[in-house]
Amino acid sequence: MKVFTILVVLLFVTLTFGQEAGWTFEKVLFQYDLEVSNSYGMHGVAVDPDGNIWTGMYNWPTDSIVTDTDTTYIYGCRIFDSDGNELDMSPVNILTGAVTDTITSSCRGLATAHDGNILLSVAGKLYKINYQTGEGMAMYDYPEYTGSLTKAAVAEDGKIFIGTVGKGHPIKILNPDLTEIGNALEEYSGAYNRAVAVTSDGKDLYLGSTWVGIGIPHYHSDIPGVLPFAAVDTLGNAVIEGVYDTTMVVDCDTTINGSDTTITCDTTYTTSPHMEKFWAEDVTIGPDGNLYAADTQIDFGYTPYRGSRWWVFDLETGEELYSLGEPEGDPSSGGIWNGRGAAWSTDGTRMYLADFGYNNITVWKKATAIGDDQPHVLSTFELLQNYPNPFNPTTTIPYKLDKRAHVELTVYTTTGEKVVTLVNETKAAGTYEYKFDASSLASGMYIYNLKVDGKVRTKRMMLIK
Questions:
Q1: What is the pLDDT, as a whole number, of residue 380?
Q2: What residues contact 281, with CB distance under 8 A and at least 6 apart?
Q3: N or C: which end of the chain has fewer CB within 10 A?
């Protein structure tokens, strides 16, 4: 008897994209003129108290030292003002001061310390750099490890949390001067990891996961540095509505009677909902207290339904709030390939995202008007998700009215440019469906906006031709 098991993915796709987007794309702050590659890419972003944006590339040097026998490449930090102009002291290639060193290892993450200075993770080392002068202030050498470190995370009291990209090593807790306090976790072996995030009180720790992604593991300690962190739950993994995994089992019996051979096969099927595991390339807690996590690129083939965008989670409930970015879309209008860092302006109104594949830093602003979807406000109308989604070239947009009201249904680009007004009239209470024909539009993400008596609801839809 022989048994063959085959895993089949059935695709009945009814995807929905970010629905209550808290941010809208504004511009590209800076971009290297490079092709998308897994060999190099933007790998960090941080904002200092003066509002300047620090950036770092993986495996793409800012300078080199050439001798008769060798070439040493330097991987410094480049620094820009909020208009995208590079500062005079940029790039910071060589550290002087309390720490003297040449940065000869690629950036693996950037963060802002509680005093405003910059934390740069490289291979085996964490540097603290004076944001005003570019001088070295302190350096932590991870014990008995020369591989890449994660991006650091900073608690409100200044304590710093950092781990290794490779599996099987501790997550460390450091003082603000980078001296070691102890281990937050004795060992993290769940997955390779590029980033650490910590709540302001230092009690809740969130880790990334990639190769192979397992979601966003969450750990808690009542007294960090004294009591160990214990596993709580995992965020980000999601059952994809309308997509099913089917296991096919073929059971064959062979009967031999003289010179005759008979093979009889029975086939059984078991179908279950498809669970997509989150590959968190970056995790960062924003000034709003939400967790921002970048799911890995769709191009890898492991996250076809949720990859190549940022997802935002409410840490009080663990609820997924919305997503950001057009998956593998045009980088000049908010496309995301593979996020590797998030930072915010000092007033919290601008968000800066680092993208590995597109080699850029993009700027996002707090959403108003078309992005202002507030489900907690009692309303007399409801905007529903279009179907099918994605679509080509027609889709249906449903909405409901609890009372007679003036209705405006409008389609926008992700940058806020009006495409077309579909409805602009007074309607009676009831359920409505508008069939939208996008034959004349280019492929991409669009926003549709329902305005009723001055109140607005917004959702997104994806046109794929």
A1: 73
A2: 194, 195, 208, 210, 294, 295, 296, 338, 339, 340, 356
A3: N
